[in-house]
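Holo model, zinc ion. Inputs:
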Amino acid sequence: MKTINLKAKSSSGDHYQVVFEIDDVIKVTCNCKAGIFSKLCKHKTGIISGDRNLLYDLTEEPLLDELMMIMRRSGYNILSKELIDAQKDVETAKKQVNKVKHKIEQALQKGIPMTIDN
Ligand SMILES: [Zn+2]
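Output:
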């Protein structure tokens, strides 16, 4: 098994350790508050996406490059695309909500036609 350790910047100026255990599968852990509960934290996703600005120690850049090569051979991009698609769906739904709210605002201002006879 191969292990790649990268230090990701934290918002406090300190850093978290993002660890990649590479075998026939790739496991990723981070020791931040969310990461220790196996949550998808920005350190994991940032490092996986190759964000150099997230590196706490720039001497680890070659390791990040090596990791990028390895990640390309994994199924992560399929999962990542699924997340991006879901986020686009949320954006589309938000736009629709705003459109309907605007329609209701207009209707309340101009008057709503009475359609039901009592
Ligand atoms: Zn984290």
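The helical segments are 42-48, 61-72, 76-110. The pocket of zinc ion is lined by residues 16, 30, 32, 34-35, 41, 43-44 (CB under 6 Å).
Archived with the compound record.
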